[in-house]
Recover the amino acids of this structure.
């Protein structure tokens, strides 16, 4: 039996971040051929923040296995939350291995059998992980061909593979299947692979549209999410929550709760919860707890937060700037100063944060709806003082994430309660908890000063972003004199954000693209130039220019100076390695201020598109979801109290909002694949704001563009 | 107080000895193990918990199990017959009318109820009828298309 030597065995077995030691894989999975690989290169590590890079194991963090029945399984710490990698990752493997698509399986998000992964976000699964997985899969094919060569007595160069069968090209009777090759084998191979692009003309599976592989499970109710798990003796928990983020419990009386049949109250420090085998009774018991709180004064609400940010003692960091501001100013014929505001947003996945935790035989197992199973495992290790081998996180289907499930407080709470009660504890956050303990898209302010010369060329761009982050803050236009400043939380200063903030689909970029593209539109109007022509004149980036052309063709764009009264807007941008351009048509009811988006077209350059069907679904989803932050979504708060904590107070897009949606994916088969789950959402705010201007002449500098704000802006026309 | 509650559940006469004030959603999920019906908000706003009661789409988080007594309850698990997908389920698969899939059972039950009442809805009637079922992934356009396709197939008497 052939057996490859494994590098780094010692480091592997001593690293606490890994799941089981590699020597155990065969014991659990059975025989076959296992290929370990590492989707992180030194270069990627250098690009990461230091604390994140330290967390990435240096030896391997993914592997695939060719089992003795010929099925190929990829084990990854990534998770499926609707974005569709459960469908597209196997496509990439099918092509490299020459096996039928249905012979490929993917096992995700189980910390005991999948290798470490930082989390599923940032549209990284295809463009980083997928690329290297493909290369590893190609190496696996090499191993199989070596085995076939030995078995058939034929040189590798004389072999071909079709549908998992290796055949001698000179004697078609000489065949052996992958299953036969893997039978009785226990081969491990460690690869340090670099991503390589295969000849796209040879793709059979990549680039072809595949329907979702999980649809059947999801339309029949068979798909299991964390809340669908059930264990013997399981109890439901409800946690006592303070009335506001600024509250601290001073006294608690839970005698009333204990009168509810079957209820047990558990407490550890500030964590007070009721458990009951019956979910309804747990609900009844939690409201019987009487608690008193003291409140810290919080000086800010959803209206004053922007002023508060601008006045705060911030950490100001200059980013890559070019040219000279004074020289730029001298070149300008007209200058423009604008201030843009964007509020806090909630994620509002329909599945709330959910976890089932069980402490059994000294091992804590948690089934959790999370984008970061390994993050949750580390959280539990830290909070409960458990070693890695005593914590296992399993991620069933996740009912929507959008960045919000990068956080995993519910998993730690469930684990604590399981330890305190000795029972398996199911914790499904209520919708209130989901709204209040969400890590919101951060509110922020963006100030831009810009200028154009007599020819309508942008000569000056001074950009300051306060507290909403820098992703997507690049100018993208060809401007000789630019200055960027990022204002953020001072490490020793009082907190500016009064509650948790985090990643929200295409984090920061929705805010930055809104500000930039509205400012561009302001200048186009002042220059008296068609807004598409103005952008073309000031852009050098071929990718964006191509997207603009493609979207204009799809939309049937007819040039015209804004405001033309037609209600047509344009915006473009870049995110997650991809480029997008949008056009929209709106109708504005000038008496009510209500905006109806009639149609939106989007063109996207995402490099090689692995699954056009899946990518199109993501674009449609981005466009539809984007209407929410554009038109209605805003977390209202007073002090530390979240006022919008139900689905009637916080309005997300519904069927009646739906515009006609057209999508175009540029043909870029020869380019590496890029992100697809986020780019198409970044410009929705801007494209609608610009369309409102074109319809009415009213400029909106603040999202969401509610009827009240539209009416307010109309008064200034 | 526990009582014996009898009703039709997915085509079978069923009974449970249970407190009739308990929420139908939790009884379906925790007593009968029918976890296809989802919890989304517990307030009747999202529609993830929609089931059919006597062919009417109903939010099972807003109903007690006692109120279902004597009635015909159908959940997502009871929609396919003899392993064959219901036309609405089939159309959701064909159109990829879902992403995370968490709102999907409620969407399908609501759409089925809609088509029982109005077998040939216009696009506007589909939008109106689906309006208060929430989807965060943004599958709305495909859901409308799927309901149209299902409508066509059901009209054919299949």
């Amino acid at each position: 039996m052939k057996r490859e030597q494994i590098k780094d065995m010692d480091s592997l077995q001593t690293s606490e971040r890994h799941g089981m030691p590699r020597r155990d894989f065969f014991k659990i999975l059975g025989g076959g051929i296992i290929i370990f690989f590492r989707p992180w290169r030194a270069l990627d590590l250098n690009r990461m923040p230091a604390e994140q890079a330290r967390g990435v194991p240096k030896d391997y963090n993914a592997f695939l296995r060719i089992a003795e029945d010929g099925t190929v399984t990829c084990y990854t710490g990534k998770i499926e939350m609707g974005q569709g990698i459960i469908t597209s990752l196997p496509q990439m493997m099918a092509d490299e291995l020459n096996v039928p698509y249905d012979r490929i399986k993917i096992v995700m998000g189980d910390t005991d059998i999948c290798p470490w992964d930082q989390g599923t976000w940032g549209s990284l699964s295809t463009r980083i992980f997928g690329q290297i997985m493909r290369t590893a899969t190609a190496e696996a094919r090499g191993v199989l061909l070596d085995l076939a060569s030995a078995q058939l007595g034929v040189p590798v160069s004389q072999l071909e593979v079709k549908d998992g069968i290796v055949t001698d090209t000179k004697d078609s009777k000489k065949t052996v299947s992958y299953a036969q090759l893997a039978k009785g084998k226990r081969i491990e191979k460690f690869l340090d692979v670099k991503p390589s692009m295969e000849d796209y003309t040879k793709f059979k599976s990549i680039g072809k549209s595949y329907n979702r592989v999980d649809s059947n499970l999801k339309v029949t109710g068979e798909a299991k999410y964390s809340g669908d798990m059930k264990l013997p003796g399981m109890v439901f928990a409800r946690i006592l929550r303070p009335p506001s983020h600024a509250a601290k419990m001073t006294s608690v009386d839970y005698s009333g709760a204990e009168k509810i049949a079957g209820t047990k109250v558990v407490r550890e420090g500030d964590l007070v919860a009721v458990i009951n085998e019956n979910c309804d009774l747990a609900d009844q018991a939690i409201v019987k707890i009487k608690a008193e709180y003291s409140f810290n004064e919080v000086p800010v609400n959803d209206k004053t937060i922007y002023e508060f940010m601008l006045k705060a003692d911030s950490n100001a960091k200059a980013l890559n700037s070019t040219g000279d501001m004074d020289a730029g100013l001298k070149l300008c014929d007209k200058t423009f100063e604008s201030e843009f505001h964007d509020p806090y947003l909630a994620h509002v996945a329909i599945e709330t944060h959910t976890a089932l935790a069980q402490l059994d035989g000294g091992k804590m197992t948690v089934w959790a709806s999370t984008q970061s199973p390994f993050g949750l495992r580390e959280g539990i290790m830290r909070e409960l003082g458990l070693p890695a081998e005593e914590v296992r996180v399993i991620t069933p289907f996740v009912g929507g994430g959008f960045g919000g499930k990068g956080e995993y407080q519910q998993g730690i709470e469930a684990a604590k309660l399981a330890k305190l009660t000795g029972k398996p504890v199911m914790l499904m956050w209520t919708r209130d908890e989901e709204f209040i303990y969400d890590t919101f898209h951060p509110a922020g302010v963006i100030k831009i000063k810009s200028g154009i010369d007599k020819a309508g060329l942008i000569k000056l761009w001074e950009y300051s972003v306060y507290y909403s982050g820098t992703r997507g803050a690049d100018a993208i236009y060809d401007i000789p004199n630019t200055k960027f400043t990022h204002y953020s939380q001072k490490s020793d200063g009082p907190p500016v954000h009064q509650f948790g903030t985090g990643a929200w689909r295409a984090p920061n970029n929705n805010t930055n693209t809104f500000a930039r593209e509205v400012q561009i539109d302001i200048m186009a109007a002042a220059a008296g130039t068609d807004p598409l022509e103005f952008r073309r004149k000031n852009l050098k980036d071929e990718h964006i220019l191509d997207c603009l052309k493609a979207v204009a063709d799809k939309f049937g764009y007819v040039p015209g100076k804004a405001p033309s009264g037609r209600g047509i807007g344009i915006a473009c941008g870049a995110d997650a390695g991809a480029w997008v351009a949008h056009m929209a048509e709106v109708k504005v009811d000038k008496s009510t201020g209500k905006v109806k988006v009639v149609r939106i077209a989007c063109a996207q350059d995402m490099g090689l598109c692995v699954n056009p069907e899946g990518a199109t679904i993501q674009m449609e989803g981005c466009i539809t979801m984007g209407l929410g932050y554009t038109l209605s979504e805003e977390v209202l708060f007073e002090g530390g109290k979240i006022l919008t904590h139900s689905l009637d107070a916080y309005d997300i897009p519904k069927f009646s909002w739906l515009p006609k949606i057209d999508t175009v994916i540029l043909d870029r088969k020869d380019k590496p694949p890029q992100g697809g789950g986020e780019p198409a959402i970044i410009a929705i705010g801007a494209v609608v704001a610009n369309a409102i201007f074109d319809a009415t002449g009213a400029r909106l500098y603040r999202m969401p563009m509610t009827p009240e704000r539209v009416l307010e802006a109309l008064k200034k026309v | 107080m526990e009582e014996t509650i009898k009703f039709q559940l997915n085509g079978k006469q069923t009974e449970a000895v249970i407190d009739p004030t308990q929420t139908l959603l939790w009884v379906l999920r925790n007593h009968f193990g029918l976890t296809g019906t989802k919890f989304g908000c517990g307030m009747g706003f999202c529609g993830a918990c929609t089931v059919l009661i006597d062919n009417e789409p109903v939010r099972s988080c807003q109903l007690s199990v006692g109120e279902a007594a004597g009635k015909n309850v159908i959940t997502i698990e009871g929609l396919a017959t003899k392993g064959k997908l219901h036309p609405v389920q089939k159309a959701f698969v064909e159109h990829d009318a879902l992403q995370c899939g968490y709102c999907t059972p409620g969407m399908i039950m609501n759409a089925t109820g809609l088509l029982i009442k109005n077998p040939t809805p216009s696009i506007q009637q589909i939008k109106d009828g689906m309006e208060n079922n929430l989807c965060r992934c943004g599958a709305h356009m495909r859901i409308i298309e799927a309901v149209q396709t299902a409508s066509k197939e059901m009209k054919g008497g299949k």
Notes: Chain A touches chain B through 57 residues (CB under 8 Å). DSSP finds 21 helices and 28 strands in chain A. Residues 124-152 of chain A form the longest helix (29 residues).
